[in-house]
């Protein structure tokens, strides 16, 4: 399942965010910042990078950043076992390790569970296998759709175990690929649970076995997250389950309640309804899909909820959920989210808890470096540097991915890991989180990047500028019509005075693939009036965005440069 943006996210206090150098370009892409030159020192026949210089034209000022020793991982700092040790081998840790070796750092990665973490084993990867099945089932079951294409299909069916095996086999294959990719480049894979025992020192090992201690110039925490289960909910792994259990697809219930209507809940509703289940959403907020742009959420409800065997409760809490036992169904007690008065009691075949994810940070030894978590998250600044209980930076310790709570997505973790390695090797690189796309792999898909319309309007009012909205429909796209998939909308939020792209939201066929053009535009600071000249192949779905950019109206007579993307 797409790693979800958890409702547990809490912004860190302003004093924990450090001021960055004004000469640095913030960018969400994997490339080096411009205007930097490395400095090397030769000692005992070895070349050692000792710093990097940034020069500002005409100012004559120099800014020097320190960097770690590097030589393609063939030799590390003489006083440490490794240049870099990464605790956690999920997508974030894997991405950081690959980039570290590329930059010449001797690297080790500690994995206490299985290679690939949540994404590969209990998230993004197996969920996409299930969604691939649900997409095909949904298409084959749509008699009107098939008839419109001139096709006649007999009643579609499925083999539950074969579907489950498809998801499990995919996870196994990707897990093996990740392991082999690290071994191939010489990353040491250390098995066991990692704990920081002091400055630049980590112990690891399995329960009941001898523990080992290694030293590292720098440490990255990348321990990810686990499903968040609210109080009062009893998980039995069979009839009351989390996404971890649901991905095994051990049975398909006739009626399942899904608590939470975010990414995870919405994707599983797509799977279960395609396989024949009836679904009831239980949402604490006043509307379904509260994290989506409201206009996109409204359309999604019309397309993804209303036509299917789905009903819902909004503005309610599930205060108690009891698993099915002795032939009795799962019982769910609901109360009003505002008044806390009893609302209803449901009896269903199963309940899936999709209320977001919680950071997995216990047992890391954070107390040994004077770090206190905030609702479980490891506090860190915009460069992923860990902050201690006194508000000071902890030297040589970084935290990436779900464990820091900045943006709980698998690809965010990888990007953050890469940004840390860039810093360790002399490039002051700050990731622009507003340029990171997100996607929900329903049928049709939903994707987004940047601000929602309410967020953009709030920002505009605070900073004193206007925003404009442009929209285009998939019903005007030749490729979408050829596929008989004209249901969809693309929405652009931008500044008419500068052409700055503030946000893009898409619901429609292959929306998850289309969003990256907008994501890269935000990362690079590309303006609407420039990107509208980009050429898109015809006939393709990419022309949805082409039309979107061309429909935007920018006041070209106003000469203002687009502000640099900012880190959040």
Total helix count? 14
Structural class: alpha/beta
DSSP summary, beta strand count: 26
Helical residues, percent = 25-40%
N-to-C CA distance: 24 Å
Structural overview:
The chain contains 14 helices and 26 strands. The chain has 568 residues and is an alpha/beta fold. The strands form six sheets. Strands 4, 5, 6, 7, 8, 9, 20 and 21 form an eight-stranded mixed beta sheet that branches. A five-stranded parallel beta sheet has the order 11-18-12-13-14. It is globular and about 70 Å long. Residues 1-72 have low confidence and may be disordered.
Keywords:
alpha/beta, disordered N terminus, 5-stranded parallel sheet, 8-stranded mixed sheet, 568 residues, 26 strands
Write the layout of secondary structure elements.
Elements: E1 36-43, E2 46-55, E3 62-65, E4 82-87, H1 91-102, E5 107-111, H2 117-122, H3 124-141, H4 143-148, H5 160-184, E6 188-191, E7 193-198, E8 201-205, E9 212-221, E10 225-227, E11 240-242, H6 243-246, E12 255-259, H7 263-274, E13 278-283, H8 294-305, E14 310-314, E15 316-322, E16 330-336, E17 342-348, E18 350-353, E19 357-359, E20 385-387, E21 393-399, H9 410-424, E22 438-440, E23 445-450, H10 453-463, E24 468-473, H11 478-482, E25 489-494, E26 501-508, H12 511-524, H13 528-531, H14 543-551
Helix pairs in contact: 1-9, 3-5, 3-7
């Amino acid at each position: 399942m797409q790693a979800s943006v958890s409702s547990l996210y809490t912004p860190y206090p302003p004093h924990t965010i450090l001021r960055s150098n004004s000469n640095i370009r913030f960018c969400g892409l994997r490339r080096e910042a411009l205007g930097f030159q490395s400095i090397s020192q030769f000692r005992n026949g070895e070349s050692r990078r000792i710093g990097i210089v940034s020069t500002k034209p005409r100012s004559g000022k120099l800014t020097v950043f320190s960097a770690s020793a590097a030589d393609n991982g063939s030799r590390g700092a003489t006083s440490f076992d490794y240049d870099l040790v990464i605790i956690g081998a999920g997508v974030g840790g894997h991405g950081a390790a690959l980039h570290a070796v590329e930059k010449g750092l001797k690297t080790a990665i500690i994995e206490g569970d299985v290679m690939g973490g949540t994404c590969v084993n209990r998230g993004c990867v197996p969920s996409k296998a299930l969604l691939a099945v649900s997409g095909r089932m949904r298409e084959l079951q749509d008699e009107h759709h098939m008839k419109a294409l001139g096709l006649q299909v007999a009643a579609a069916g499925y083999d539950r175990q074969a579907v489950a095996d498809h998801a499990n086999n995919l996870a196994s294959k990707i897990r093996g690929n990740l392991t082999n990719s690290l071994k191939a480049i010489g990353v040491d894979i250390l098995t066991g649970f990692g704990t920081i025992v002091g400055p630049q020192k980590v112990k690891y090992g399995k329960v009941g076995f001898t523990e080992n201690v290694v030293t590292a110039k720098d440490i990255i925490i990348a321990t990810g997250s686990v499903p968040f289960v609210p109080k009062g909910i009893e998980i039995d792994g069979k009839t009351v389950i989390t996404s971890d259990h649901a991905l095994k697809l051990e049975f398909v219930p006739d009626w399942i309640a899904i608590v939470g209507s975010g990414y995870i809940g919405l994707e599983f509703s797509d799977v279960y309804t395609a396989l024949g289940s009836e679904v009831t959403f239980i949402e604490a907020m006043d509307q379904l899909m509260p994290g989506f742009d409201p206009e996109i959420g409204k359309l999604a409800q019309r397309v993804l909820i209303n036509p299917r065997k789905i009903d819902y409760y909004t503005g309610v809490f599930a205060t108690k959920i009891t698993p099915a036992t002795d032939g009795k169904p799962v019982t769910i007690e609901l109360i009003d989210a505002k008044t806390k008065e009893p609302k209803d009691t449901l009896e269903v075949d199963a309940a899936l808890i999709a209320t977001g994810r919680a950071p997995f940070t216990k047992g890391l030894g954070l107390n040994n470096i004077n770090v206190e978590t905030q609702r479980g998250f490891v506090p860190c600044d915009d460069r992923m540097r860990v902050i201690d209980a006194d508000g000071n930076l902890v030297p040589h310790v970084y935290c990436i991915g779900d464990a820091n709570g900045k943006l709980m997505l698998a690809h965010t973790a990888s990007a953050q890991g890469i940004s840390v390695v860039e810093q360790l090797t002399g490039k002051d690189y700050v990731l622009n989180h507003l340029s990171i796309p997100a996607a929900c792999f329903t049928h049709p898909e939903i994707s987004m990047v940047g601000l929602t319309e309410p967020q953009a309007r709030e920002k505009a009012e605070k900073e004193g500028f206007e925003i404009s909205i442009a929209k285009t429909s998939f019903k005007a796209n030749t490729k979408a019509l050829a596929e008989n998939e004209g249901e969809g909308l693309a929405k652009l939020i931008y500044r008419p005075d500068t052409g700055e792209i503030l946000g893009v939201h898409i619901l429609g066929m292959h929306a998850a693939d289309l969003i990256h053009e907008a994501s890269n535009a935000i990362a690079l600071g590309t303006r609407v009036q420039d990107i509208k000249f980009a050429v898109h192949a015809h006939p393709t779905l990419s022309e949805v965005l082409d039309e979107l950019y061309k429909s935007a109206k920018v006041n070209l007579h106003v000469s203002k440069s687009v502000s640099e993307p900012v880190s959040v």
